[in-house]
């Protein structure tokens, strides 16, 4: 913690020197969060302004935060004035100069958050004294932003963790003309995500049709509480402009400890069998995984232009203090060495093209190709992805486990058609599988996914959205030709959702969803359904209420239906609805003044047919489990 405060102090001093020299130019940076695009969630069909599309069935039940500050303009520091003879004018110019320096150093954006979360019911981990800390989850953060600098400090403690600041993250960013220096924790994005990218940037077509966009650029300080996927060290960025064709240069170095399961081989040597990415250190076993090995990443990223195309070149060297080997449970291949990436994007005629090729020092290759074409009322896309079984990118290594591009090849396509009267039809189809194939298989353990979506505005009522999604686990095996190929369907999943939303007024709205899922396969066919409603009311100018209620019935976790519910200001939590019961929540959002915001949330899961909710040490005896969240925010925009 002391080291991070030293970083902030150094940032303030360096900014003071830059400002005194007249370095008061604004550098535009992309400080939007990794999960903050405006879209509709695929899992729940609800509209938020801080979360991207995702297939909740492929994601853990984790919280997603969007706590980044946007850059804004600030008055420029003009510096001291001098008379023709060179003598400094102190009255009144000296006082004005000092005032301008202080004005330039003032944060144009400031945000301070305190969030507390508590489950009133006691789980086994606490009743049996396995979890050593208190049952209160606590998160505190401070963000500052200015055209010349940005800084953030975040501390977090999960339920059951001993330390009041179990996770600490901080960064300081200095900006001057075309340069930016970030010290501390930061995130990198590059190309289409094979080398570096956002945590869920390599989604498939049914999950993320908007992934065919311009190449990502710029690094940013880490300000979220996810404990994986970021780097810790230094990043130096040059915004380009002085060198023809060069639009960006990034040099970076990161060294951080990662949690993992360490084992010994037959010779007594230590190795890592799996990377631990949950970020929970409550029990003695979880605490033993903390800092199991050290990972170092260094490299250079170049952004440029060539014949109308955006070009990105990248090289990164990855080193681990312990060998990373696979075991049967995690199937994790070893990773490390140097990796090289080339990414291109731009328009060829009327078609947008984006591609990236990744190669490591051992000759292993991953590549992706994406095509997008816009017609009058139609957008069509098609993209491919393939990766060697043993290839592991540095970013995938940070997340741990099986990252999306590893061991996977696939073909993804679809279209979006906007008809008259506000109707929209979206269709996507994915065919993908694990490239670590047994002999004779073309696409082994392949999943075939299709999604059909229809939107229409209903007069005097609201917007109607119909969604049908199908996913099947299929196998393609055979000999040398297509005639010898056999297609086997091992399991299938059908999902249907109807979503109707409207408004009482400009500030109040309502939403009603009906969801149905059917599973088939080796086991007996099962069906699940859920009805979900939500109401947002603006009672008075400074207060809003949000009430949600879901009635659901399913036989297993595999048949769960997902909704995305609020978990605080700018925080959303995907919740699985399985077994039989009710889920409800009530949130109160108060804004007593321009700068203060108080958010309180209570939600409850009730399952009448069970004797306990949860599993393992998170099991709560009884048929209900509740959660209370309180968040206080002070913000200057």
Describe it.
The longest helix is centred in the N-terminal third of the chain and has 19 residues, at 2-20. The chain has a 24-stranded antiparallel beta barrel. A three-stranded antiparallel beta sheet has the order 3-30-29, with no helix packed on it. The chain has helices at 2-20, 93-105, 124-127, 284-288, 394-399, and strands at residues 39-40, 47-48, 64-65, 109-118, 136-145, 149-157, 167-176, 179-187, 220-221, 231-238, 246-258, 260-264, 270-275, 293-306, 309-320, 323-324, 337-348, 351-360, 365-374, 378-387, 408-418, 424-434, 441-458, 462-477, 486-503, 509-520, 526-540, 543-553, 561-568, 571-577, 580-590, 596-606, 612-613, 620-621, 624-636. The protein is mainly beta and 637 residues long.
């Amino acid at each position: 913690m002391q080291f991070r405060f030293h970083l902030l102090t150094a940032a303030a001093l360096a900014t003071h020197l830059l400002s005194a020299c007249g370095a008061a130019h604004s550098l535009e940076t992309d400080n939007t969060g990794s999960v903050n695009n405006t879209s509709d969630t695929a899992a729940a069909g609800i509209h938020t302004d801080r979360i991207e599309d995702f297939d909740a069935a492929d994601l853990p039940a984790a919280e997603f935060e969007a706590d980044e500050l946007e850059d804004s303009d600030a008055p420029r520091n003009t510096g001291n004035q001098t008379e023709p003879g060179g003598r400094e004018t102190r009255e009144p110019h000296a006082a004005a100069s000092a005032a301008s320096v202080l004005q330039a150093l003032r944060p144009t954006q400031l945000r301070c958050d305190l969030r507390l979360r508590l489950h009133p019911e006691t789980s086994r981990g606490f009743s049996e004294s396995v979890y050593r800390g208190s049952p209160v989850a606590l998160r505190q953060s401070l963000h500052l932003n200015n055209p010349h600098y940005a800084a953030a400090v975040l501390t977090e403690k999960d339920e059951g963790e001993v330390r009041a600041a179990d996770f600490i993250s901080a960064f300081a960013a200095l900006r001057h003309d075309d340069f930016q220096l970030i010290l501390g924790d930061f995130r990198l994005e590059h190309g289409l995500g094979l080398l570096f990218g956002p945590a869920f940037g390599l989604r498939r077509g049914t999950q993320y049709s908007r992934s065919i966009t311009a190449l990502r650029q710029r690094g940013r300080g880490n300000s979220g509480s996810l404990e994986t996927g970021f780097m810790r060290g230094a990043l130096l960025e040059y915004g380009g402009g002085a060198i023809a064709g060069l639009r960006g240069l990034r040099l970076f170095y990161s060294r951080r400890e990662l949690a993992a399961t360490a084992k010994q081989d037959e010779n007594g040597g230590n190795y890592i069998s799996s990377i631990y990415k949950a970020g929970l250190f409550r029990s003695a076993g979880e605490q033993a995984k903390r800092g199991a090995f050290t990972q170092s990443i260094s490299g250079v990223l170049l952004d440029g232009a060539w014949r109308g195309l955006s070009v990105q070149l990248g090289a990164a060297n990855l080193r681990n203090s312990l060998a990373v080997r696979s075991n049967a449970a995690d199937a994790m291949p070893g990773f490390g060495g140097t990796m090289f990436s080339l990414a291109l994007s731009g328009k060829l005629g009327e078609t947008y093209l984006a591609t990236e090729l990744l190669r490591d020092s051992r000759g292993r290759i991953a590549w992706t190709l994406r095509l997008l074409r816009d017609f009058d009322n139609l957008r069509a896309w098609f993209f491919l992805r393939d990766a060697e079984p043993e290839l592991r990118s540095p970013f995938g290594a940070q997340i741990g486990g099986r990252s999306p591009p590893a061991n996977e090849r696939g073909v993804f396509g679809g279209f979006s058609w906007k008809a008259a009267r506000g109707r929209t039809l979206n269709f996507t189809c994915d065919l993908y599988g694990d490239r670590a194939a047994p002999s004779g298989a073309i696409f082994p353990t392949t999943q075939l996914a299709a999604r059909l979506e229809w939107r229409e505005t209903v007069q005097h009522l609201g917007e109607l959205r119909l969604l049908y999604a199908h996913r099947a686990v299929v196998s393609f095996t055979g000999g040398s030709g297509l005639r010898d190929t056999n297609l086997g369907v091992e399991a299938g999943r059908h999902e249907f959702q109807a979503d109707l939303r409207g408004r009482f007024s400009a500030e109040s709205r309502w939403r009603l969803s009906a969801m149905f899922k059917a599973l088939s396969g080796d086991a007996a066919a099962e069906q699940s359904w859920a009805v979900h409603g939500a109401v947002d009311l603006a009672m008075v100018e400074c207060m809003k209420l949000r009430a949600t209620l879901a009635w659901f019935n399913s036989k297993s976790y595999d048949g769960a239906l997902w909704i995305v519910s609020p978990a605080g200001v700018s925080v959303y939590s995907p919740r699985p609805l399985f077994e039989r019961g009710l889920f409800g929540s009530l949130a109160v959002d108060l804004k007593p003044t321009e700068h203060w915001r108080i958010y309180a949330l209570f939600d409850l899961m009730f399952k009448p047919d069970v004797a306990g909710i949860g599993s393992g040490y998170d099991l709560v005896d009884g048929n209900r489990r509740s959660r209370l969240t309180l968040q206080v925010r002070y913000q200057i925009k």
